[in-house]
Amino acid sequence: MFQFGSFKLDAPERRLVRNGVEIPLPHKVFTTLHLLVENAGRLLTRERLLEQVWPDVAVEEGNLSHNISILRKALGEQASGETYIETVPRVGYRFVAPVSKIAAATGTQNKSESAAQRSRQEIRFCVTNDSVSLAYATTGTGYPFVKAANWLNHLDFEWDSPLWRHWLRDLGEHHTFIRYDERGNGLSDWDVEDMSLEAWVHDLETVVDAAGVERFALMGISQGGPVGITYAVRHPERVSHLILCNAYARGWNHRGHPEKTEERRALKTLVRLGWGRSNPAFSQMFTNAFIPENAAPEHQQWFNDLQRMSATGENAARIMEVCDDTDVRSLLSSVAVPTIVFHSDRDRIVPSEEGRILAAEISNARFVPLPTANHIFLAGEPAWRKFLEELEGFLQW
Fold it and tell me: Of 114, 191, 243, 311, which has the fewest beta carbons less than 10 angstroms from its beta carbon?
């Protein structure tokens, strides 16, 4: 049984009660409410809700919108001025009221903190010199910690994703954690003319200026690595620590592997043609590459959803092309800020050799190999715990 505000929701009995008075709801409407409440604070996509409310039945999205409209009236949102269900345009819905779980047998409350009761992120927008609108988010308090954008991001959808929620939780525990959606994807402008490393560096400059942070720790994951390296060389007075994680200085076109370059060219064609479609084989290919170890079905589903909402296939391929053509190796000897390099020892996206190059050519950089094949560390795996321990020690240096 769940409680929120003056309401109690009894899932086994399928009853919604307010101040002792039952509010009758149609079967599918109750199911919609139950899904939202038990996932309070989490963004549920329209596709996910349609699949769970109407399993094995193809229905129009208007059916879901109709259910949400009935729920808003039943909860009295307009009359009370309270908001229980938040609409995320083009994406889905989130139940935003604090929810407590009640032990039905005794009636005593077993208060479990929901995502809605956690510190919420604040999303704002800024505009670059070439008139591109960028979305950036802050969460937590403490010394500023900035994450350069990587392929691909969506600030709102990441908030409770199985891949990123532990990053947001743990890195925002002792820091003001700042991240953003790069141009061409997420909540930032999709229709952009300039897609280049130089544009990405200017985007980072724009975001940190808009966020009002003068000095900060800077983390570059994967493609965020060359962006962070370039920024640190240009603005050493503003970067107190540089954290590189499964990053690189040179893209595939500069690594001397012609066969891999051909594979990447083919992959970009597949991305342009198959991105965002409900193709399990296509999604599994990305899941196996990014998180080949301990990946659960929810990870694959999240990758599926991310493709549909984060970017067009054309933009995803354009970003890949810039990554492959990147080469900032000549800048490594000019990095003058304290640097730590983390790299998965069996990474399939960025070979560990690239991490060793970073550590060897950046003066006094520390190299920390991590025991995993995952490009993005999952919660609970030893690599994540080691990453946090080493990072904490580095930031106190």
Answer: 191
